[in-house]
């Protein structure tokens, strides 16, 4: 019985640590991205970080609210539908089904939005940054060509630590 409890607690702790690591990564993605100035025409001095639907990392990502990056404050929002994505600068997707994946990506195609997900195959279907597990560690890969199409460029420091850049 104690072993089952320890195993469940360990699994919960691992998920909590993973969520905090992903939040730290996303914060740094926003730090090491060049957005065109027109990306902030509507929001002014705010970077809108949006969490799409049911996001297990919600608590960790909400902790990023009111931090400042590039002289802009981070605002964290939970978005329940594709229509709410219009004002986002960074969108984190988790637990998306294939149909949602297609719909959302077509809506954000060629827009100045940094899309990030832990869904396997995300960058192969036009996502920009995908988290992956490599030997028990969280790493990420970047889709440079799709990013360029979205008007997003990355600072060298970010590209140097990416696992895969394509």
Explain the overall architecture:
Strand 5, helix 3 and strand 6 form a beta-alpha-beta unit. Helix content is 35%, strand content 26%. With 166 residues, the chain is an alpha/beta fold. It has an eight-stranded mixed β-sheet with strand order 3-4-2-5-6-7-8-10. Strands 1-9 form a two-stranded antiparallel ribbon. It is built from five helices and ten strands; from the N terminus they run αββαβββαβββαβαβ. The termini are far apart.
**Series of secondary-structure elements, N-terminal to C-terminal:** HEEHEEEHEEEHEHE
What is Rg? 16 Å
Mean pLDDT: 84
Question: Could you list the spans in which at least 5 consecutive residues all have pLDDT below 50?
Answer: 1-13
Summarize the structure.
With 166 residues, the chain is of the alpha/beta class. The protein contains five helices and ten strands.
Topology:
Elements: H1 2-31, E1 33-34, E2 46-52, H2 58-62, E3 68-69, E4 72-79, E5 90-93, H3 98-108, E6 114-117, E7 129-134, E8 137-142, H4 144-149, E9 153-154, H5 156-161, E10 164-165
Parallel strand pairs: 2-4, 2-5, 5-6, 6-7, 8-10
Antiparallel strand pairs: 1-9, 3-4, 7-8
Keywords:
alpha/beta; 166 residues; two-stranded antiparallel sheet; eight-stranded mixed β-sheet; single chain; globular; 26% strand; disordered N terminus
């Amino acid at each position: 019985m104690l072993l089952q409890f320890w195993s469940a607690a360990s699994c919960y702790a691992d998920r909590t640590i993973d969520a905090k690591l992903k939040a730290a990564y996303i914060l740094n993605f926003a730090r090491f991205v060049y957005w065109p100035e027109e990306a902030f025409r509507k929001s002014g001095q705010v970077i809108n970080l949006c969490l799409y639907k049911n996001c297990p990392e919600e608590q960790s990502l909400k902790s990023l609210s009111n931090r400042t990056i590039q002289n802009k404050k981070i605002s964290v929002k939970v978005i329940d539908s594709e229509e709410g994505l219009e004002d986002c600068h960074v969108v984190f997707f988790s637990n998306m089904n294939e149909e949602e994946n297609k719909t959302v990506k077509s809506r954000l195609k060629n827009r100045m939005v940094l899309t990030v997900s832990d869904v396997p195959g995300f960058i192969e279907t036009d996502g920009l940054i995908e988290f992956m597990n490599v030997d028990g560690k969280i790493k990420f890969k970047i889709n440079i060509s799709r990013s360029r199409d979205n008007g997003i460029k990355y600072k060298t420091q970010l590209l140097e630590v990416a696992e895969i850049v394509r």
